[in-house]
Amino acid sequence: MVENKPVKRRKTFFTMERRWGLAGVAFVSPFIIGFVLFFLFPVIQSVQRAFVDVGWDQGREVWEPVGLDNFQNIFFRDPDFLQYLGNYFTQMLPQLVIVLIFSMFIALMLQQKFRGRTLARAVYFLPVIVSSGIVMSILGNDLTNQAAQESTAIFITNNRILMDLMVDAGFGAAMMEAVVDVVGTIFDLAWRSGVQILLFLAALIAIPKSFYEASTIEGASSWSTFWKITFPMVSPFILVCLVYTIVDSFTDYDNELINYIYQNIRDLFYGTASAMSWVYTLAVFAVLGVIIGLVSRRVFYMVD
User: Distances in Å between the alpha carbon of 289 and those of 151, 240, 283, 296?
Assistant: First the structure.
């Protein structure tokens, strides 16, 4: 009787897991190379300048160490920095919620089958293309501002009708003011929502149709289907959109705190501008950490 010996399989170095890992490294390598070559040195210099007073001697930059004086100036002597920083967060957090709700709503609409669906999707993503690079530098101060002013003017024209409707509905003064502020900036909010709409649309398309078929057989309503299937399945993308929206507003061309930092650079206050930049960056990172920590606990991940 011949005994069957188990065949020893040869271990390969390029396992499937390692192949996926190498593919991931290949995709992020352009960013890593670009960061090291073009971004790392300016970051190190900005940290150094936050602790020095930058002067000039015969056309050469001279650094005089001042310790924490630049940070003390922006916290205790500058009357505008903390105000701009507070305004940024008080404006960003409500807009964050509105952009996410608006993006989810538009993505749900664009998922439906109707004539011109492809064109509608392109229209909502068009601002992302227009607002990139040199196009934004050309149009940012002209076309977008003009469109925003025109949309606001249309709203003001019908402002009395909206106010009357809210008064009849029993809205409080604070709620009426919030609605007016949101509607007045609707163009800007729609302009900022292109990437979020695309992400939500991709998440909705990826949901298996069998889930909806099963819920229909069970007699679930559309409302229950949304909260029991759609919302949990897109929750990872909600977290991604949260992070993207915060970072996008962090570097927005219309950010008054960014413009204030640029003004200090133009006035040759490099040390003060660097200190402002790092305080601003760390504050945004802190808010990101809090939001990610709170939201990630409620994110649903489907495990195969």
Answer: 35, 13, 10, 10
| Max intra-chain CA distance, the chain | 98
Structure tokens at 13: 């170095």
* Total number of domains constituting the chain: 1
Tell me the two tokens of residue 31: 């960013």
Rounded distance between C-alpha atoms, residue 178 and residue 184, angstroms: 10
pLDDT per residue as tens digits for the range 80-104: 888 888 888 888 888 888 888 888 9
Q: Which domain holds residue 242?
A: 61-296
Nearest-angstrom CA–CA distance, 73 and 70: 5
Rounded Cα distance, 231 and 163, in Å: 33
The answer to whether residues 220 and 228 touch, using CB atoms and an 8 Å cutoff, is yes
For 22-76, what is the HEC assignment?
HHHHHHHHHHHHHHHHHHHHHHHHHHHHCCEEEEEECCEEEEEECCCHHHHHHHH
- Give pLDDT tens digits for 226-238: 888 888 888 889 9
- The answer for residues whose C-beta is within 8 angstroms of residue 144's C-beta and 6 or more apart is 131, 191
Distance CA 118, CA 111 (A): 10
**Residue 34 placed within a domain:** no
Contact 34, 49 (CB under 8 A): no
Q: Is residue 5 part of a domain?
A: no
Exposure string of 247-286, with b = 16+ CB inside 10 Å and e = fewer, is: ebbbebeebebbebbeebeeeebbbbbbbbbbbbeeebee
Give Cα separations from 96 to 55, 131, 224, 287, 288 (angstroms): 40, 19, 25, 12, 12
Q: Are 207 and 236 in contact (CB under 8 A)?
A: no
